[in-house]
Amino acid sequence: MEPFLTVKCIKSLKEKGLDVRKLIMDDDSTTFLRTKKAVPNITKSSDKNHVVRNLSNALYKVKETHGGLSVKTIKYFKKCFAYTIQQNKNDVEGIRKNLYATVPHAFGDHSQCNSSWCGFLKDPSTYRHKSLPSGKDLVGEKLREALQDVFQKHAEKAEKYIDLGSSNANENLNQMIAKKAPKAQHYSGSESLSYRVAAAVAQKNEGHKYILQVNSACNLSPGKQTEKRQNLLDKKRSTKHQFQGTYKAKVERLKLREQRQTSETTMELCEGTTYATDIELSATNDELEDLITEIPMSERKPSKISPLSPETSSIIVADLETTGLATDSSIIQIAASSYCTEDTFSSFIRPQNGYIPKTVSKLTGIELHGLTMFSDMVPVRSMGEKEALLKFVEWMRKYDSVLIVAHNACFDARILISAFNRHGITDHLKSIVGFSDSIKVFKKAFPSQSSYKLQHLVQQFGTDLPPVQAHNAVNDVLVLRHMLLKIPSASDSLRQSAFSVEHVSLQIKKAQNKQKNLDGYDQLISQNVLTKTQCSSLASHGLSVKHVQLTFNRAGVDGLKDVLKGKIKKISIAAEKLARHFSQATS
Q: Whole-structure pTM over 0.90, yes or no?
């Protein structure tokens, strides 16, 4: 279909007086051969992007049989290829010689190099490759032969590369046409198709002002809003066009492309094999399990800071008493107070396991005997944890965008959100926009204190307040509120130092992952393959040792680097050590 339409279009244009002399296109079809037969005087330029892409595809095929060829090395050869073509325009021999010299240069053989670009010839004593792994020469005779074969084929076609073109402008026009005449709507069968295509061509050539010109030609008012919109779009187009030609824009495009490719590769790697011919018949059960096991990907890191507005957020001062310090500890008392009013909330909560440790009872004065709770030996009304959490949420609903403030808020936030998770009522967390730690405010207001415990602060600066009853949630909340009200602009400071619910949830999940996975890394730690800090980070991101080994089995060192990125430091060294460890374990 493509060759037929190309020939038909060129003949049609010639009949209208437009002589097409050159086609810029890829080398993947017989279109030009057929066109040349119909229009003998036409010539062709290969598309630069397609040429580089074809080289990339050839290099990735080499990678399938030569594990030593990394993605970074492939990028190096693509860059060398592009530079060779760019720096030797209209010089066939220059392109050919440099392409022949590219692979030997990477392997440390500089006999064919040119001093205009080879750093080794300029200073052999200090030369290191800038873009090859660790700056060292590549090794492996079979790999060298395979790469030389790829570059030799391109060197033999050097005359094709002296006048490369770009089909980007045509691709851009195709996108415009696709927006005005979407294929899914079958406008090709509509009488409006020619007008839609003409509109796209006019926009490409003239910008959006063509709409005003069409209106004027039809004796219609251009329209003030239409003109305003046209000026805005054309200004945006002009600014973008000017920026696209700059070095900064090119660097940004390359970065985005690399990020997109890395993201796609990592997703495929983590997902495992999804399709292969006769896979269920040819693989054992254990092999099938490895093939379908998904490797956890890094979740999007939530913002630590909550986007709070001083005009809309309501500050609630809160405190919890718990059965311990662990994340899964039960809450035995919640107390809260509005920062701006005297409105308060308090509830005693029966722990799920029906047990309060004696050490906790000694600190808080809260005890549980059967189903009855006591505070300082006085019976108090109590309820289950889920019921108490829902009552607390209901009390907070009278306030908009609640910011919970606590002394050492990281602890209270972790315990509170864990409790919501435990009872499956996390939807109710939507009423909480974040948490803030009052300790940060006191450190700013009262610097250089020996302690920032609430009791100490009250002794030093709150002599007019009643004494703090340590580990009594209601008393702690009231005292903390009054202490904060003494500090000018405390509310603004609390909002500025807030952290989000999502941030706390992620920290809880990381802690759970670490507890689940870290023990499996004992061998890697004892053999100095990874440090304990690195293993803790990997475990907290949900990666077990099995996941790390599967990554190596599926994609080698490059796969390890992709999966480790953003989780630990010194990725390249860690990936190499892991690769050696797993290789020795299977040999």
A: no
Dihedral sign for Cα 269, 274, 277, 283, please: positive
What single DSSP character describes residue 339? S
3-state secondary structure 381-406: CEEEHHHHHHHHHHHHCCCCCEEEEE
Please name the residues in contact with 17: beta carbons below 8 A apart, sequence gap of 6 or more.
Answer: none
C-alpha distances (whole Å) from 502 to each of 345, 508, 510 are 25, 10, 12
Residue 29 — pLDDT band, cuts 50, 70, 90? Answer: low
**Does residue 284 surpass a pLDDT of 70?**
no
Q: Are 348 and 356 in contact (CB under 8 A)?
A: no
Q: Measured between alpha carbons, how far is residue 446 from residues 452, 461, 497 in Å?
A: 9, 9, 17
Query: 314-499, which class in CATH?
Result: alpha beta
Q: Report how far Cα 153 is from the mean position of its chain's Cα atoms.
A: 38
Quick: pLDDT tens for 215-236: 888 888 888 888 899 899 888 8
| CB-CB contact of 534 with 558 (8 Å) | no
Is there a contact between 446 and 438 (Cβ–Cβ < 8 Å)? no
Question: Tokens 């392997």 identify what position?
Answer: 107
**Distance between alpha carbon 560 and the CA centroid of its chain, in Å?**
17
From 79, 55, 60, select the one nearest 129 (Cα to Cα).
79
Taking the C-alpha atoms of 124, 127, 132 and 136 in order, what is their torsion angle to the nearest 10 degrees? 70
C-alpha dist (Å) from residue 262 to 234, 256, 259, 575: 34, 10, 5, 16
**What are the sequence ranges of the domains in the chain?**
45-161, 245-303+500-587, 314-499
Helix spans in 88-167 (H)? 92-106, 119-122, 141-155
Alpha carbon distance 65, 43 (integer Å): 38
Tokens for 139?
């090794």
The whole-angstrom separation of Cα 61 and Cα 64 is 5
CB 21 within 8 A of CB 39: no
Where does residue 448 fall: left (phi above 0), alpha (psi -120 to 50 degrees), or beta otherwise? left
Return the DSSP state at 368: E
Straight-line distance from the first to the last Cα atom of the chain, in angstroms, rounded to the nearest whole number: 53
Residue 551: burial class (beta carbons within 10 Å; 0-12, 13-18, 19+): buried
**Residue 85 neighbours by CB under 8 Å, 6+ apart:** 48, 51, 95, 161, 164
Q: Which amino acid is at 225?
A: Q
Over range 349-376, report the average pLDDT.
91
448-480 tens-digit pLDDT:
888 988 888 888 876 666 665 656 788 889 989
Token pair listed for 552: 């190596």
**Number of Cβ atoms within 10 Å of the Cβ of 503:** 19
User: From CA 434, how far away is CA 417, in angstroms rounded?
Assistant: 11
